[in-house]
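Per your request, structure below.
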């Protein structure tokens, strides 16, 4: 497949060359679901996605959910990633994120990338966001 499927791309240049995604979040459930596709400029091992591009997608999904579902400005403080299977380029994937816990300034989330049918877990991460005071930046 060489046709771009999604309208959101975080990178400058031609759409679909690095990554595209669409996220749908529920504030009530503190959950995010989405779809993503990595383009040819996200290649690491031949025919597969670079780990840094995967990390960017996990961070983006957790960040969007943190911003949408939890009050205040929060930034990524830590992310622990488990790369479980190679992630092929130009393939559609499911993205999931969930707020696991909010404790003071800390927000703990999980984020996953799965096959389009939801059956195969490719990558998962635990992500810690910390609230910040914008006036001190």
């Amino acid at each position: 497949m060489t046709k771009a499927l999604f309208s959101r791309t975080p990178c400058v240049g031609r759409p679909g060359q690095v990554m595209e995604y669409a996220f749908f979040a529920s504030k009530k459930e503190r959950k995010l679901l989405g779809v993503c596709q990595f383009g040819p400029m996200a290649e690491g091992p031949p025919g597969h996605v670079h780990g840094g591009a995967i990390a960017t997608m996990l961070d983006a999904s957790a960040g969007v959910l943190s911003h949408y579902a939890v009050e205040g400005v929060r930034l990524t403080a830590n992310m622990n990633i488990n790369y479980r299977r190679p992630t092929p380029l130009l393939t559609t994937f499911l993205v999931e994120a969930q707020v696991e816990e909010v404790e003071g300034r800390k927000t703990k989330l999980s984020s996953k990338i799965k096959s389009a049918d939801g059956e195969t877990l490719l990558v998962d991460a635990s992500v810690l966001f910390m609230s910040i005071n914008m006036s001190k930046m």
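The two ends are 44 Å apart (CA to CA).

Regards,
D.
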